[in-house]
Amino acid sequence: MSLAPDRRVSHSVERPRDLSRPLPAALSWTVLFVFAAAFAIAFAVLDLPWWMPALYVAMSLITFAAYALDKAAARRSAQRISEQTLLSLGILCGWPGALVAQHVLRHKTRKRTFRRAFWRTVVLNVLLLAALLTLATLRGWDLTPGWLPDLGSVLAS
């Protein structure tokens, strides 16, 4: 046994894994249900344009697919989708799909830093939506772009 210092250089730094227990699934499902119910009520009461819920549905499907691709890549040790991309998809109205993917696929539920960032994007998205709807209601804005047809007239023809 030598008392000389170990001169080998380690090129890989072992970082502690940032894992914790997942949040209770009931909490996530409750948040999703409350959002969907509130959005449905706002859609009916405020007469929101059809593109708003359609945007959330489309972005949620895209985000769910991104999580599924990332989960598959993780299993194969292949090129992953960056966390920044997953978070960006979530903040761009895809967080409901991300929430479903996290629980259905059991993906991205244990990494504490990701979960915190994810929930910040959820809160930010909901606050931005609430601010938009509040301003639109108070100022009488028409949220339907002129180039986008009214769904009622499209379905009637």
Low-confidence stretches: none
Radius of gyration: 22 Å
Instruction: Give the percentage of residues in beta strands.
Output: under 5%
Say what oligomer this is: single chain
Number of strands: 0
Describe the structure.
- The protein is built from five helices and no strands.
- It has 157 residues and is mainly α.
- The mean pLDDT is 86.
SSE blueprint and pairings:
Layout: H1 25-45, H2 51-76, H3 83-104, H4 112-139, H5 151-156
Keywords:
157 residues, mainly alpha, 5 helices, single chain
TL;DR?
This protein has 157 residues and is mostly helical. The chain has helices at 25-45, 51-76, 83-104, 112-139, 151-156.
